[in-house]
Every structure is written in C-alpha cells, then in structure tokens.
Amino acid sequence: MEQELQQVAAIYELITNFLVNYSFQLIGAILVLLLGIFVARRVSNIVLRLCQKKNLDVTLSGFIANTVRLIVIAMTAIIALGKIGISITPFVAAIGALSLGAGLAVQGLLSNYGAGLNIILARPFVVGDTISVQGVTGLVKEVHLAYTILSDEDEVQITIPNKHIVGEIIHNSQHDTIAELSVGIAYHCDPKLAIQTIQDALKGLPGISNERAPLVGISGFGDSSIDLGIRFWVLTRERHEATFRANLAVHEALKSAGLDIPFPQREVRMLS
User: Fold this and answer.
1) What are phi and psi of 223, to 5 degrees?
2) Taking a C-beta distance cutoff of 8 angstroms, is the pair 217, 165 a contact?
3) Cβ neighbours of residue 39 under 8 Å, at least 6 residues apart?
4) What is the CATH number of domain 2-105?
5) 8 Å CB contact between 32 and 83
6) Environment class of residue 191 by beta-carbon count within 10 Å: exposed (0-12), middle (13-18) or buried (19+)?
7) DSSP string computed for 63-105
8) In this structure, is the dihedral angle defined by the CA atoms of residues 191, 192, 195 and 198, taken in order, positive or negative?
9) Where along the chain do the CATH 3.30.70.100 domains lie?
C-alpha cells in the first residue's frame, strides 16, 4: 500500500512540475491552435470565393479550399507542439509506419480516394453533367474524394465508388440526354410534309433543348408504313416527362396536318 502511495505521489509531483514549468507554454500552444483553426477557416473561405470568382468547377473549388485549410491547421499544430517543447520528428516516423500499415489494410478505400483525386484534377465530368458509366446513367449531383453521387429523374440517388469510374468508358452528354422516338405514316402521305410537321411540333416544347435542333428523317420502310425516326435532346431531369409530351405533340401535329398513322393490315385473297 505504501509503495502504491509513493507511486501516486511521484506521478502527482511529475504532473505538478510539468504544469508549473510548462503551464504558460501549454496555454500558448492552445491559443495558437485555436487561432490557427480560425485563420484556416477564414483563408479557406477566401480561397473558395476566389475560385468561384474565377468560374472554377464547384468540386475543384471545394477541394482546393479544403486542402488549404488542412495545410494551415497542420502548420499551426506543428507550431503548437513546438511551444510545449515536443519534437515532431518521432511523430513523423510513427506516422510513416502507421501509414504503411494502414495503406495495406485499406487499399480499396485509398484507391477510391486516388480515383477521386484524379476525377477532381482531370475533370472528365463536373457537377450538372449527365454521364453513363458501369451501366448507370444519371445527373452528377456531387463529387467526393471517395464516391460520386448521381441523381435520376425520379430523384433516386446513385452512389458510385470512384474506383469504378476511373479507367472505365464514360459517356458524358453534358446536362442533356438523347431521346429517340419512331412513328409511321401511310405510304400515300408526303414524307417531307410529315418531317416538317414533326420538326415544327417539337420546336419550343418544354423540356426539349433549344441548343440542338431535333433530327427527323426516314428510318425504314415497314409493311404498311413509312417509318420516321425522331431524335432530340431533353433535359436529363425531365427525360420521361419530355418524351411523353413529345409523343402527344407529334400525334396531334400529324392528325392536324391530315397525315395518317396506319395500323398493320393483311390482304387475304381466296383462290378458286
């Protein structure tokens, strides 16, 4: 019992001596660290506003701002440790050893972060683009270091780890998506009139891109109709809605122009 009391007394004396000798340094280190965090936040906000002023991509702007904030905090922590007489050299060696072990343990996670960094720097797509990758199509909503979030017209969020994006074939149609329709007209109808009628019906239709004109032409010849192919660009977030609206507009336009949409017919002859 007496030995344990001596040990407690020794620890108490050690702590007391440390506080007496380093109390001001400890307070100074805490103040420096708090000041560094405050400065890091202000500098990060300034960098973010500067990047936005230069019209940089929102993902790249956020990455640069966060990187600057972490650098300022790391520098402040080094200064704070120096205030209380702690050398950072052993910490650097320990961090190196831990990093090696952690790297082997979380290879998948690190590969996602590496791929995310590649996406942010190379910018094969940005927030607001419509991409197709790994059989998934959606509007890019957020780009993080570890994963990318897509959103479709039904507001379903699709999370894709970045390692499944980098190195794959990516289809990027910016903020639009192609929509394809097909309609048949009777053989006695004028296909030029039908093509012009459909083009006029699609002009100015809500949800359809005004930057690219719709493409309408003869796609084939059926048993009872001339098949017209229709291709136009729609906003990704309104893809199905705009397609349904276009179908109705094409039907009404052909009907108003007196152009017949035939149904399959069979001619049967009785031979004696």
Assistant:
1) -65, -35
2) no
3) 72, 76
4) 1.10.287.1260
5) yes
6) middle
7) HHHHHHHHHHHHHHHHHHHHHTT--SHHHHHHHHHHHHHHHHH
8) negative
9) 176-256
How far is it, in rounded angstroms, from Cα 165 to Cα 169?
Answer: 8
- The string of pLDDT tens digits covering residues 181-191 is 999 888 888 88
Q: Is the CATH number 3.30.70.100 carried by domain 176-256?
A: yes
pTM given for the model: 0.55
161 Cβ partners below 8 Å, 6+ apart? 112, 115, 146, 147
Is CATH 2.30.30.60 correct for 125-172?
Answer: yes
Mean of pLDDT values over 79-92: 65
Q: Which residues pair with 185 in a beta bridge?
A: 226
Cα 144 versus chain centre, distance: 7
Taking residues 192-199, what's their average pLDDT? 90
